[in-house]
Task: inverse folding
């Protein structure tokens, strides 16, 4: 069942989302060659707690850390470790928080130093696909409209859309109805309405869309070991239109990226 949020609840969720946005902004300055993902995890946990929130993933389904950190061919759900990041790596960082009973859930894929033009384009296209999906998240549209838009754009670039992992409703639970696949057919699936809040999160592979689950029960990599990117925003339907609760503003300030891509979703 889809849980509709009141205006007040959406404002509470905005606070949880902004905490994860600021966490990713803080991490953006720390992601560099030589840094371990476990170090990033510690920084994130300290920061989230300093904001009066608790890490959203720690202990959720028994996940052991604050961040899911997934370098290179890892798609999502990577467990932080002591291995240093290397020049030319990419690293997807997914971060959750919980404050006043509501979750934020937000992800960005970072370049570690200089990366190849091929990988740079994968990150660029995946981020763009996220906004293309968000544009379809409005009253009267359906789940399939978001998935269709993301899939079409992604596959036009020759990339693979991961099937097994999807976005989701967000609220007092990290994962609520509806599931939000990054593929689909126009006009299919559950209908969107005022007060719905979802996490939209394209996971895009440079090569095949197929993935492999590792024996640790968490780590997921691409089947062909080519890189994978992941970007995620929390979005509400307000006045019938998509309203971004999370923002990459802090990340982009840290990285010196100038873009107006979020402007149309500010309410
Ligand atoms: Mg997430
Ligand atoms: Mg999510």
Result:
């Amino acid at each position: 069942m889809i849980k509709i949020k009141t205006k007040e609840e959406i404002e509470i969720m905005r606070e949880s989302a902004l905490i994860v946005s600021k966490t990713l902004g803080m991490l953006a300055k720390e992601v560099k060659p030589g840094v371990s993902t476990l170090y990033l995890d510690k920084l994130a946990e300290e920061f989230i707690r300093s904001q009066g929130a608790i890490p959203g993933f720690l202990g959720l389904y028994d996940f052991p850390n604050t961040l899911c950190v997934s370098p290179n061919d890892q798609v999502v759900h990577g467990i932080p470790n002591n291995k240093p990041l290397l020049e030319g790596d990419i690293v997807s960082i997914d971060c959750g928080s919980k404050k006043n009973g509501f979750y934020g859930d937000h992800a960005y894929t970072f370049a570690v130093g200089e990366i190849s033009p091929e990988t740079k384009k994968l990150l660029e296209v995946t981020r763009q696909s996220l906004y293309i999906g968000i544009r379809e998240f409005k009253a009267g549209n359906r789940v399939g409209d978001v998935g269709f838009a993301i899939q079409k754009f992604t596959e036009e670039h020759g990339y693979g859309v991961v099937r097994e992992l999807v976005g989701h409703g967000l609220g007092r639970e990290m994962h609520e109805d509806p599931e939000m696949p990054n593929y689909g057919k126009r006009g299919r699936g559950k209908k969107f309405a005022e007060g719905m809040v979802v996490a939209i999160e394209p996971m895009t592979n440079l090569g095949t869309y197929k993935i492999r689950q590792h024996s640790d029960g968490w780590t997921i990599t691409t089947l062909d070991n080519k890189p994978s990117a992941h970007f995620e925003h929390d979005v509400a339907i307000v006045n019938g239109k998509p309203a971004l609760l999370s923002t990459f503003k802090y990340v982009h300030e840290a990285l010196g990226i100038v873009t107006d891509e979020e402007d149309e979703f500010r309410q």
Q: What stands out?
A: The mean pLDDT is 97. The helical segments are 7-28, 37-50, 117-135, 143-156, 249-255.
